[in-house]
UniProtKB/TrEMBL annotation, chain A:
UniProt entry keywords in alphabetical sequence: Membrane, Transmembrane, Transmembrane helix
PANTHER family the record matches: ABC TRANSPORTER PERMEASE PROTEIN-RELATED (PTHR30188), PROTEIN TRIGALACTOSYLDIACYLGLYCEROL 1, CHLOROPLASTIC (PTHR30188:SF4)
InterPro entries per the UniProt record, alphabetical: Permease_MalE
Any single Pfam family the record assigns to this protein: MlaE
GO terms, molecular function: phospholipid transporter activity
Keyword set includes Transmembrane: yes
One GO CC term on file: ATP-binding cassette (ABC) transporter complex
Protein's recorded name: ABC transporter permease
Transmembrane segments: 37-61, 81-107, 137-162, 187-206, 227-248
Organism: Streptomyces pilosus
Domain of life according to the entry: Bacteria
TrEMBL record, chain B:
Keywords carried by this UniProt record: ATP-binding, Nucleotide-binding, Transport
Origin organism lineage: Bacteria, Bacillati, Actinomycetota, Actinomycetes, Kitasatosporales
SMART domains in alphabetical order: AAA
Keyword ATP-binding part of the UniProt annotation: yes
Domain ABC transporter: 5-241
Region (Disordered): 264-291
Descriptive protein name: ABC transporter ATP-binding protein
InterPro entries: AAA+_ATPase, ABC_transporter-like_ATP-bd, ABC_transporter-like_CS, P-loop_NTPase
PANTHER family reported for this sequence: INTERMEMBRANE PHOSPHOLIPID TRANSPORT SYSTEM ATP-BINDING PROTEIN MLAF (PTHR43023:SF6), PROTEIN TRIGALACTOSYLDIACYLGLYCEROL 3, CHLOROPLASTIC (PTHR43023)
Source organism of the structure: Streptomyces pilosus
Length: 254, 335
């Protein structure tokens, strides 16, 4: 049981290393990359925007309520924006990339594997990792980074709307507290998180898709596993990255 | 001319269950070989091991000096370009039309212009008789057509080694006969080394130069077709006659008690088998270069073969004595 889990973990890392190497191997599958990029973007943009508005609102309302009780209402803007940009946005991106794009990638690769298409490809001297997995992983990474920007903006606007219009905060206080507490490093780490999450989601989806157990049922199980494993990994990695960031980057307000 | 495939001491198992042990054979360059075996004896696993898709635990598969089992991945990928593998159900890419499927290896491995690719692909499509279906998706055609499309894709890079996994499964007898003829014609045209894995007796009787059989986790025998076709080995005899009496049971093999009971019951002996002449290339095609090579090779080893096989070989070659390359052995003509 434990050995089995370790073996799977090892294979996952081996695939990650293989993909990292294959990224630089010519010829680059540009067409496949564009197609996958377009596909991943098309299944994630709308849900991401729709999720980020209420998410920004929830954070704004919660933080607004707390700061009001503490008498620090003028800092609502800074606090809620930081929460959205640093935490909520990468996680929303991660959920959508893993849930919408990762599951589709896993199902696609899995059904190709059980139909022996990938074997056929290898027999023809074409590496499935280079031909199929690399463009998909790069596409999820690129979409994650761009999507993160979108979610940050939409979430911030949502928070602003709810704080200023509904809770009666003042626009000036919102913006000035924002510029007092936030710094560019917050945005950078947010994008870095999105990049890493995109990579993990792509690798896990590809790994489960390349190794389904048994027939069509196995593909269904693989998709299920890929989403669950990705979520577990992403929340863990998020925790580590947040902890490291808070340690090494000095807070602006302090 | 095709490339010789040397298999040495190959052993493969899945977990604790061994598939076959210590398989050693040589596929002679440019000749057609058939690997027989009851269902579930690891014939497909053997094919996939030859091409490096599965990794046997022991042994080597040497092709042009590259070991498909242990060599670095990069060399294996390079060597695979010499192969054409026809999968059991075609293994076509479901999202591409037949044309794109067949053009895939060309687009990946060559820098040919699209017009050139179109010419080559249409030529192959015509060879396998799929003209008019090139725009269809694999899901829209019958299993037999998928198989032929898979063969066309395997042929498009002019492979030196062609492996066919059960080319007959799912085909009717007439189509199987056409396919047998197609394989022989191909061999005449491109002189590739071919290995066909099957349990179809018609293909086994008419197509190959060499035959082998896998049973009970071992290679029972491999050699010139006459050796297997005249073999008195119980497994081989039972298989070639398609009888129930013998060591092969419904599930892989019978135990000793059942066999003894069978022997006691005294099943009627099978009538002696007749060796059917091998297929010739279609009229208009060049003769197979492998025929002359095989003749030289077989005649050199004829004295070490069992007597039945020896006389069968002499008979075959005496029948077309007009062939120019006949080199009669000095010792012991006749039996």
């Amino acid at each position: 049981m434990i050995i089995g889990a370790l073996r799977q973990t090892g294979r996952l890392f081996a695939l990650a290393a293989e993909v990292s190497r294959a990224v630089f191997r010519r010829p680059f599958q540009f067409r496949e990359f564009v197609e996958q990029f377009w596909f991943v973007a098309s299944v994630t943009i709308l849900p991401a925007a729709l999720v980020s508005i209420p998410f920004g609102a929830v954070i704004a309302l919660q933080v607004g309520s707390l700061t009001q009780q503490l008498g620090a209402q003028s800092f609502t803007g800074g606090a809620s924006v930081l929460a959205v940009v640093q935490q909520a946005s990468p996680l929303i991106v991660a959920l959508l990339i893993a849930g919408a794009a990762g599951s589709a990638i896993c199902a696609d690769l899995g059904s190709r594997t059980i139909r022996e298409e990938l074997d056929a490809m290898e027999v023809m001297g074409v590496s499935p990792v280079q031909r199929l997995v690399v463009p998909r992983v790069l596409a999820t990474m690129a979409v994650a980074v761009l999507l993160n920007g979108l979610v940050s903006v939409v979430g911030t606007l949502g928070g602003y709307f709810f704080n200023v219009i509904l809770q009666g905060g003042t626009p000036g206080a919102y913006l000035s507290s924002f510029s007092a507490l936030a710094q560019p490093a917050d945005l950078y780490v947010s994008e870095l998180k999105a990049l890493v999450f995109g990579f993990i989601a792509g690798i896990v989806a590809a790994h489960r898709g390349l190794n389904p157990r048994g027939g069509p049922k196995g593909v269904g199980d693989a998709v299920n596993q890929s989403v669950v494993i990705t979520f577990l990994l992403l929340f863990f990695v998020n925790m580590v990255m947040t902890a490291v960031y808070l340690q090494i980057v000095p807070p602006k307000g302090g | 001319m095709g490339i010789e495939v040397v298999v040495e001491g190959l052993t493969k198992s899945f977990g604790r269950q061994s598939v076959w042990r210590d398989v050693t054979l040589t596929l002679p360059a440019g000749e057609v070989s058939v690997m027989l075996g009851p269902s579930g004896t690891g014939k497909t696993v053997f094919l996939k091991s030859l091409i490096g898709l599965l990794k046997p635990e022991k042994g080597r598969v040497l092709i042009n000096g590259v070991d498909m089992v242990n060599s670095p991945e990069r060399e294996i990928y390079e060597t695979r370009k010499l192969f054409g593998l026809m999968f059991q159900d075609g293994a076509l890419f479901g999202s591409m039309s037949l044309f794109d499927n067949i053009a895939f290896p060309l687009r990946e491995h060559t820098r040919k212009k699209e017009s050139e690719i179109r010419r080559i692909v249409m030529e192959r499509i015509e060879v396998v008789g799929l003209l008019g279906a090139e725009g269809k998706l694999p899901g829209e055609i019958s299993g037999g057509m998928r198989k032929r499309a898979g063969l066309a894709r395997a042929l498009v890079l002019d492979p030196q080694i062609i492996l066919c996994d059960e080319p007959d499964s799912g085909l009717d007898p007439v189509r199987t006969a056409y396919l047998s003829q197609l394989l022989i014609d191909l061999n005449a045209q491109i002189d590739a080394t071919m290995l066909i894995v099957t349990h179809n007796l018609d293909i086994a009787a008419t197509v190959p130069d060499n035959m082998g059989m896998l049973f009970r986790r071992e290679l029972v025998t491999f050699g010139p077709r006459e050796v297997l076709l005249t073999s008195e080995e119980p497994v081989v005899a039972q298989f070639l006659d398609g009888r129930r009496e013998g060591p092969i049971g419904m599930s892989e093999e019978k135990d000793a008690a059942t066999l003894a009971a069978e022997a006691g019951a005294g099943a009627a002996p099978a009538p002696p088998r007749r060796i059917v002449p091998q297929l010739e290339p279609s009229p208009g095609l060049p003769p197979r270069a492998a025929v002359a090579r095989r003749r030289r090779r077989v005649m050199a080893m004829v004295d070490q073969l069992p007597p039945a096989a020896r006389s069968a070989i002499r008979e075959t070659y005496a029948a077309d004595a007009a062939a120019p390359t006949l080199t009669a052995p000095s010792a012991g003509s006749g039996t």
